[in-house]
Amino acid sequence: MALQMFDKERTLQMRQKLIGQSCRLFFSHEPLKIVKARGQYLYDENGTQYLDCISNVQHVGHCHPSITKAATAQMELLNANSRFLHDNIVQYAERLANTLPQKLCVFYFVNSGSEANDLALRLARQYTQNKDVVVLNHAYHGHLTSLIDISPYKFWKLEGQKEWVHVAPLPDTYRGLYREGHPNPGQAYADTVKNLIDEVQNRGRKISCFFVESLPSVGGHIILPPGYFPKVAEYIRAAGGVFVADEIQTGFGRVGSHFWAFQLQGEDFCPDIVTMGKPMGNGHPLACVVTTKEIAGTFTANGVEYFNTFGGNPVSCAIGLAVLDVIEKEDLRANAVRVGSQLKKLLKQLQAKHTIIGDVRGVGLFLGFELVKDRVALTPATEEAGLLVQRLKERHICLSTDGPWANVIKFKPPMCFSMEDAERVTEQIGFILQEIEDASNN
């Protein structure tokens, strides 16, 4: 039986009636009804094409034929509980291991980034026998209760900070404590973590882990200063904790130059636990935690079995393997370097023309630019950022805002994003910013 297609208004009415209103839509004032997608393009019910600059989940492109073929072939053969022996899960783990530092070699497959981060938290606590967690301000690590508790982006709006959660300053060299003119911001920001650890220990508490996004996304698409991770890892391990790198937004070659964003902090740097999610299934629910033999060993030794019914099932792993194949065959990391560099260059050219653009930052196809009312005071231009996103949507381009003040326009498109796409979106941004400036001068 074919699914019935409703008109847009009825779909919206039914959603408002049946779906929790906290599950917000993009462009909530006038949402899009998307019925088809391919590559970096979305199509609404009328066939109108939209350039997708935000769907980092569809990592290698919407409805990539190699991915749908792999999924269909495996679904026609078998999809079963992950506790049966199967080749796909071990082959996929081996392929992932080849992209990681050698000591990260034990995998736990789950269904979502939130599940992965929750499990990482359990692993860290089991290994260290400590509870307390150090996180960065404005961080977001997932929607489970355990993760809301370590996500300042969320908990400041809810029950507040738990006594076992300790918030370090976001290493933002644009508007943070230590800025671009500082001789060694990486060391300076790492020392804020050391000071925090000292305060925690002086109160008789013990650290289980430093839990961090390799590139803070919700915090405003922050590029961390060189040397920050190695020094923080040194401090956190000396305190008896472990280093957890959240790669759910940034892994699988999004930064271009490396497969994992934590590798930007140096070829010798290695976290103790890495979580991954969103891009690895290209839209299919697939996520993972990888750690060391030592940490995994203590988790096994606790005597409590861990199982995940469908984490790492044959279909999920077939899709995961296909995603890795496409990244390699289509050289998408090189595309991220090439297109991302051009996009960043074009955004910097706009920055030179429009004073409302305070900062352009990013690497590969993880980019953002921050709108400010004043380049000295750095007053967030939140309303203008929202207006820019709205007008881009009217021009059939999908972008969104991020950052503590929702004034950072973020780019995390499918990795097949092209030079022509970069030219198109920056041209339209330039037109709209000029319109906004002209209106404010009248």
Features:
13 helices, alpha/beta, four-stranded mixed β-sheet, 15 strands, 16% strand, seven-stranded mixed β-sheet, 442 residues
Radius of gyration from the CA trace?
A: 22 Å
Query: What is the tally of beta strands?
Result: 15
The largest sheet is: 7 strands, mixed
Could you tell me the mean pLDDT? Answer: 96
Low-confidence stretches: none
Alpha-carbon distance between the two ends = 58 Å
Helical residue percent band: 25-40%
What would you call the shape? globular
Please give the count of helices: 13
Strand content: 15-25%
Query: What is the spatial order of strands in the main beta sheet?
Result: 4-10-9-8-7-5-6
Order of helices and strands: HEEEHHEHEHHEHEHEEEHHHEEHEEEH
Class derived from helix and strand content: alpha/beta
